[in-house]
Amino acid sequence: MGGGSGGGKADKARRSSARVRLWVARASTVLLWSCVIHLAAYRELWAPSVLTMWPGCLTHPRVVQRLPEAGAVADAGQREAARAVALPPKRIYKNNGYLMVSCNGGLNQMRAAICDMVTIARYLNVTLIVPELDKASFWADPSDFQDIFDVDYFISSLRDEVRILRQLPPRLKRRVEKGFLRSMPPVSWSDVSYYHHQILPLIRKYKVLHLNRTDARLANNGLPMEMQKLRCRVNYNALRFTPEIEELGSRLVQVLRQKGPFVVLHLRYEMDMLAFSGCTHGCSNEEAEELTKMRYAYPWWKEKVIDSDAKRKDGLCPLTPEETALVLQALDIDRSYQIYIAAGEIYGGQRRMAALTSAYPNVVRKETLLPSNLSLFQNHSSQMAALDYMVSLESDIFIPTYDGNMAKVVEGHRRYLGFKKTVLLDRRLIVQLVDQYRNGKLSWTDFSSAVKASHTSRMGEPSRRQVIPDRPKEEDYYYANPHECLHQPDYIPVL
């Protein structure tokens, strides 16, 4: 009996041990699958050093809904029916670190900076964190990147070139939150050697580098063709507006098209522009004083004492609404055309717009075309500017009255779309002709002929980008004429 009792205990012990091993195996299996699932969920954060080095289920191309190109007219039904497309395969490379960037300025200044920073990240083999947008500028727009651009498409469509993450991996994010972050502005108009020799060593040393004030930090010229073309790919493909912005922008274009041809007039006659530039031509003494006070109120606007008359004669002021009306008439812009104002509130209101609305009675704005649809975009200047951008691309003629960032970037985009007519006004000559006409020294016929003759080669036609060694600020801006990306004729005159 004692032997049988001992054998029974041994059997129980063996069965108990077997059950323990079974539960351990099951628990291990559950734990293993849990790890796999979490790794899959966080693969975008860990991929640079772990997962993307191995092909398989974690790296197969995903499929996303491809939205129509910017400016394309499409209703909601067409958007829903947009064909899904396979994304490019991920680029496999050794990650040198992480790059955070903070863009400054308005929408188009930030847009160009984003294109530059993506290109720099690609050629340094670093992971880019989705850029931060300026919230402290004059416009105080609280919009984040994903409020303006389709962030998922931005990340996925470029994954064969550069890895882009929404945020840093957790360990590095905690370090940054504790204040361990190297932050600096890059040197303006730098070529790729600066980033390889000065910026890359810092990224390798600190693992994370934050670049602030990223506007105009990459050279216009002298870069490898591949870099120039990547800048275009980011600008004209990857940077799509959100579906909400694209849908409303397309509706604006539809409303305009239904009523006939339309001209987009980028009329830079807002209060902040006049205060910043010091241009007060046509303003009352009280208005001139108000603008001067505003200029002194912003310490980062470095130029304070400005001779408005001298600046205007040098062609450095935006045209006034009155001057603009004369130019449109001189260029024989049909009176029946719609004139879409792509700008903020015009300084002086209806009083300053009277000459333009008298010459062109069909002056419209987005606020008058679809007033009930703009509530979600109010107080978000960059989102409102995105709507103007879409309409500007689709217009029959685009005419900027000042060569700011929007004027330049839209000019380049319209070149990319097939050299669509863009009238690049010679302001220095125009103010001379306007003054002569108003003083009776020129007849209307002579004034009109002179304006036409001086702008026959300023319509956005193909041309080589001007290069001025050692003076990059004075040469043609890359995004106004990215000729490396454009279908050019065999002969292009050098301007």
Q: How would you characterize this protein structure?
A:
- It is a single chain.
- The protein has 495 residues and is α/β, with parallel strands linked by helices.
- Helix content is 47%, strand content 8%.
- It has a five-stranded parallel sheet. A four-stranded parallel sheet has the order 10-9-8-11. The chain has a two-stranded antiparallel sheet with strand order 1-2.
- Helix 4 (107-124) packs across helix 9, helix 10 packs across helix 17 and helix 11 crosses helix 12.
- GO terms for molecular function: glycosyltransferase activity.
- One of its GO terms (cellular component) is membrane.
- It is found in: Membrane.
- InterPro entries: FucosylTrfase_pln, GDP-Fuc_O-FucTrfase.
How many individual helices?
Answer: 20
Q: By helix and strand content, what is the structural category?
A: alpha/beta
Radius of gyration: 29 Å
Helix coverage percent:
40-55%
Could you report the average pLDDT, rounded to the nearest whole number? 86
What does the largest sheet look like?
5 strands, parallel
Quantity of strands, as a count: 11
Strand order in space, largest sheet? 5-4-3-7-6
Query: What is the oligomeric state here?
Result: single chain
Low-confidence stretches: 1-6, 33-77, 79-83
Distance from N terminus to C terminus (CA atoms, Å) equals 111 Å
- What amount of the residues lies in strands? 5-15%
Attribute tags:
495 residues; alpha/beta; disordered N terminus; 4-stranded parallel β-sheet; glycosyltransferase activity; 5-stranded parallel β-sheet; 20 helices; 8% strand; carbohydrate metabolism; transmembrane helix; signal-anchor
